[in-house]
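Lab manual, section 2.4: Encoding a predicted structure.

Procedure: take the sequence of the chain (427 residues), apply the prediction step described in section 2.3, and record the output as structure tokens. A sample record is shown.
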Amino acid sequence: MTYEEALSYLASLGKFGMNLGLARIEKLLELMGHPERQYKTVHITGTNGKGSTAAMLAAVLRAAGLRTGLYTSPHLVEYTERMTVNGAPVSREAFAGAVEHTAALVAEMVAGGWEHPTEFEVLTAAAFHYFAAEGLEYAVIEVGLGGLLDSTNVIIPEVSVITNVTLEHTDRCGGTVAEIAGHKAGIIKPGVPVVTAARGEALAVLRETAARNDAPLYVLGRDFSADLIGFEACCQQIAVVTGRYGDLGQFGMNLLGRHQAENGAVAVMAALLLAEKEPRITLPRVRQGLAGAYWPGRFEVVPGRPVTVIDGAHNPDGAARLRAALDEFFAGRSVVFVLGILADKDIDAITGTLIRPSDYVVAVRPPSERAADPSAVAARIGAGRVETAATVAGGLSRAREMAGPDGLVCIAGSLYLIGAARPLIIQ
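Recorded output:
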């Protein structure tokens, strides 16, 4: 396969939909010789922050000198972003090779009477195969959806991480926080330590599941804490204190916001648990990795005139975290939003949380079949000045014009929008 043929093959699997369950991926990995068992793993789920936390942990492992893979979804611009080794995305050629190898085994599997795997299952199996071929020591694996029935939930990790739990994917994971927490708690394995920033009702579910699995549970606010000490344009300092390892002092971070301070503390706690079995992971290496971690499109501040913030806030909790970060880092400033939201999201909750009466909005259509019509989004925004634009580029141009050289532009609402807009800003 060429890279283009691999993408075409994956696109053709869309007809199999989103079919949760582990039987197909388990059979496919069996035919592959179980590549996912050839390296150690960390498994990460959560409503928000799982990608950022995964990136931080992978950076820590790399800083410790461990050959490290990172599997995440979705991508911003190109599929190759989903599989990285030591920080470098898979090449197009290697991506195509991994997909081709997997496709041959899928054909064998289906010929044997098995149900056809979904696109995400094929992609996950291809990533596991690629990582094994690359001779990894560790892979940080981000859950695609939920946890319990997600295709990635075939691994037995060294540490499980559940960043937080709020309402999302209610059509797949249940209509209450407790039900969704039950899905995310599905990544908890017998005897495997769990690190979480969950609270309230969700935490109660995780605590019960961890106890049932005899899995040690480390909770933000009880077993470790993070304080935001200070910040500048593109970096911040946090202080981390743990009950198990004591006062760890300050850590520098390129990822900004109090929510990232929490994610950073989760990553530090998980890394130090890994260090109990891996001597190459030391506190100086944890500090080095956290300082070097990078995760585009998550409260990413791009200096210029005007300043631009890029954030993939695509649900109410993400919108609340973005709003809090804007208020803290850019206190008192009006914002011109370039806003694009998917139709299956809670548009009223996202816009009601994110937009203030002093703000302005240019609504655009994210490049997705699931995108909400910009006019429909604009009609549901009751505060501020609202316009629509026919294209993402046009919306960005108009927002810059409205903000002026000393203003603030924020692009938010969907990772599909971030993927389209970011190359227009960062050349």
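Check your result against the sample. DSSP finds 15 helices and 17 strands in the chain.
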